[in-house]
Amino acid sequence: MPEEQKQPENNLEKYIHEIDICGNPVVQKLSEVMGKDNIARYLSHLYKHDSLAEPNTTDTIQTGSVLCGDDIISYCEHTVPLIDYPLKDYVRIIESASYQLRLGSRCRVVDEKGKDKTVWLHDSQKILRIPPHGIAIVSTYEWLNIPGSLIGRWNLKVKKVYEGLVWVGSLQVDPGYQGFLFCPIYNLSSEPRDLIYKDPLFTIDFVRTTPGKDGKYKIWSLPTNKFSLFDFDRLDEKKIKSAPQESFRKYDTQIENIVNQTEEIKEKLDNKIETYSQVMLVLISVIIAALAIISTFGLTTIDWSFIDGKGTTFVIASFVFSIFAIVFACMAMRRKK
Predict the structure, then answer these.
(1) Domain that residue 295 falls in
(2) What is the total count of domains within the chain?
């Protein structure tokens, strides 16, 4: 079939085209790491946003009850699925009454030097490392479409809490919300923690709500710019700081300054001690040399015959010793210079 006669598969081609012309760098990067078809499908859900307010006439679940695993799967089979992910993989991430949300592609982390950077995770780059006392903003791998009849309640998996991670997101996902979920995570441990792309990180359950007086459900208002749902840069990164990390970094700087000052003081003291020791050596050498010369040539009235009869040996020894003393003094002065 010629290219111009091909029918759009699931009507996604127009959304793929919209992605191509939107010029949004985040959407382009997500399309690269997650697949353009996936992003186009998420975008198609956004254009069906109003349908989330319609009651589900086939739903017999009681208001206020928590959805069990089978009901979660049922909601995922709707035209606008509760969680957009292939059903064949639901078995291992759907529990009795909850779903395990996984780590997504786009993250932001403050490294050990305090520099904020964006990290893109994919199948070839799976590890996100959060430094000790550091903070990272993470997103979910799953795209959610919360109908008006439900709210979501999500939290960090207990296993991750035991590893020293603290979750600081919102407890509730409002009816009508569409998009990835994201939140800051603190690493309060003294060791770096690695998060793995597509590994279960959060758990979410769903609770039924009540309809309005008109029989429809009140839903979250969709932003005018739909592409903004793919990005979390609307958060002010200057306000996303780890107080423990900043404190430790401040103390590290102060300690480093004290160490540098101590090294400078030590170096000055070492120089002064070396100077004094060299001066003392020079003085002692000069005094010894002078005494040796005086004893050899100045004290001629002393009778040295008691040693060898003529005193020749002592005179020669004194002369040689004086020469060595003078040479030693000169070497010490040269070293000082």
Answers:
(1) 246-336
(2) 2
- Please tell me the distance from the alpha carbon of residue 34 to that of residue 180, in angstroms, as a whole number: 13
Mean pLDDT by 10 residues, the chain (337 residues): 42 87 89 91 91 75 77 87 74 82 90 80 93 89 93 90 80 91 88 93 91 83 86 62 60 76 83 75 69 59 52 61 68 62
In this structure, the answer to whether residues 233 and 258 fall within a common structural domain is: no
Q: Give the CA count within 13 Å in the CB-facing half-sphere of 183.
A: 19
- DSSP of 66-113, one letter per residue? BP-HHHHHHHHTSSS-SEES-GGGSTTTB-SS-EEEEB-SEEEEE-TT
d(CA 184, CA 136): 5
**CATH code of the domain in which 38 resides:** 2.70.40.10
Distance from C-alpha of 335 to C-alpha of 337, rounded to nearest angstrom: 5
Quick check: pTM over 0.90?
no
- Per the document, the length of the chain is 337
Residue 234: φ, ψ to 5°: -70, -15
CA distance 118 to 235: 13
